[in-house]
Amino acid sequence: MKKFNKFESAQVKKGSVFELLPKGAYVLKILKAVEEENKNGNGSHIKVAFDVAEGEYKDFYKKQFDASPNEDKHWPYDGVYNLTAPDDSSPQWMIDNFGTFVAALEDSNDGYHWDWDESKWKGLVIGALFRNEQSQKDGTIYDHNRPFWFRKADDIRNNKYGRLPKDKLVDASTIPAPADKFVPLGDIGEDDVPF
Fold this sequence. Notes:
Number of strands: 5
């Protein structure tokens, strides 16, 4: 390779190593809530950015965000919850999930009452029970810890929230193995490797 002078000015991009928030019960503070259309066009959801508000893991996601060396950094994936926004044609379970979330907000914040404006969720607290989850993309399994059930914040503070939700793990046996790109060529010498 021919030497080039600007090599010394290369800004080396270093990947970030993020820890997972342990499975458990947490009081969260909502940092932002925005309604967005679903990618497939079949409705909408409320994208809720949050962080841990109290205890040993307070500001967990902010610390990850601040530690990221990336110039185009964004709020950590596990610090965002997409709450389906139901309508009159939605199944009852979807309406119940939304109602449970709103009730937990109302019960956790004195004087707050849902008025169909999710932007007012900023600064409110809510209790959440997290579970371990896995996702799979292109044969790689990714670990997450995400909120699954929501509760009154005081129930979390007083350890009166019941059991934690069951984990949602990927069955590794159902993931197709990547195609083997190595093709044996027989006996070749070190200087004979074909490109």
